Amino acid sequence: SERGVETDKEKIKALTTWPVPINLKELRSFLGFAGYYRRFIQGYSNIAQPLNELTSGYLPLKNSKKKPTKQQGTLYHNPSESFGERWTQRCQETFDQIIRELTSAPVLGFADSKLPYILHTDPSIIGLGAALYQLQDGQLRAIVFSSQGLSMSKMGYPAHKLEFLALKWFVTEKFSDYLYGADFTVVTESNPLTYILASATLDATGYHWLSALSTFSFQLQYQSSLWKHRSSAMSSRIK
C-alpha cells in the first residue's frame, strides 16, 4: 500500500480461527503459513522455537535429502498421531503469540536507497535476530525483520562470538541487497564485539567472517540499551 509493506489482511484474518495443531501435518501447515510472513515479526526464530522443536523426532520426508540420525532401535514419532502431552503450555503460548504478532503486524517502510540504514542485531543462544531501520520523515521506521535458528554446535558459542556471527550473517547474507554499497550503522549491545573487530586475535573462522565484512562500509556503535545511552566513544569505522 502507499503506507508501506503490509501483510495480506484477508489471509491474516484466517489466523483468528486457526485451530490448534494436533499433529505434525497440521503444525507444519501452520508454521509454513507463519513463516511466509516472518519478516513482519521481530525475532521470529526465537519465538517459534518451541513449535519447531516439536517437529523433530520424525523420519525425514521421502523427498528430503536429510537422512535419519537416530541410532538403530530408536523409535520415531508417528506423524499421524496426536501430540498429546508433548503439546505443552509453552507450545500453546507460542502458538497464541505468533497469531497475536501477525494479526497486529506493523506496516514496514519502503527502503530509500538515498537514506542511511541502521541495523540492530539481537543474538541469543537459540537464534539470531535482526531489524533493519531507516530514519524517514523524522521517524524511525522498520524496513524488515529477520531471524535465523542456530545449529547445536553454534548454540555453544560465547556471547561475543554470537554477536560476531549475527553481524556477519545479516550484513553479508540476509540484508546484503540493502547494505552493499551503502553506508550504515550497526547498533550492538555487545561491548566485546567492538574490541574483537578492532584489535583482538581472531581464529580462522573469525578472519573468514571479517574478510566477508570488509566489502561493506559501516560504523559499529555500542549501546547498553537500544536507542539509549549513546556511546560514540565505542564506535569504530569498518571498511
Topology (elements, then pairings):
Layout: H1 9-13, H2 24-36, H3 44-54, H4 89-103, E1 117-123, E2 127-136, E3 139-149, H5 152-155, H6 159-174, H7 176-179, E4 183-188, H8 191-198, H9 204-213, E5 217-225, E6 228-230, E7 236-238
Parallel strand pairs: 1-4, 4-5
Antiparallel strand pairs: 1-2, 2-3, 5-6, 5-7
Helix pairs in contact: 2-3, 3-4, 6-8, 6-9
As for the number of domains, it is 2
Helix-strand topology string: HHHHEEEHHHEHHEEE
CATH homology group of the largest domain: Ribonuclease H-like superfamily/Ribonuclease H
What structural class do the secondary elements suggest?
alpha/beta
Mean pLDDT: 84
What is the radius of gyration computed over CA atoms, rounded to a whole number of angstroms? 20 Å
Protein name: Reverse transcriptase/retrotransposon-derived protein RNase H-like domain-containing protein
Domain Reverse transcriptase/retrotransposon-derived protein RNase H-like: 87-186
Pfam family, one: RT_RNaseH_2
Organism: Nothobranchius kuhntae (Beira killifish)
Features:
239 residues; alpha/beta; Alpha-Beta Plaits; Nucleotidyltransferase, domain 5; 2 domains; 7-stranded mixed beta sheet; 9 helices; disordered C terminus
Would you kindly provide a written description of the structure presented here, covering whatever features stand out?
The protein is an alpha/beta fold. It folds into 2 domains: 83 residues, Alpha-Beta Plaits; 120 residues, Ribonuclease H-like superfamily/Ribonuclease H (Nucleotidyltransferase, domain 5, 2-Layer Sandwich), CATH 3.30.420.10. Helix content is 36%, strand content 21%. The protein is built from 9 helices and 7 strands, in the order H-H-H-H-E-E-E-H-H-H-E-H-H-E-E-E. Strands 1, 2, 3, 4, 5, 6 and 7 form a 7-stranded mixed β-sheet that branches. A hairpin with a 2-residue loop joins strand 2 and strand 3. Helix 6 crosses helix 8. It starts with 8 loop residues before the first helix and ends with a strand.
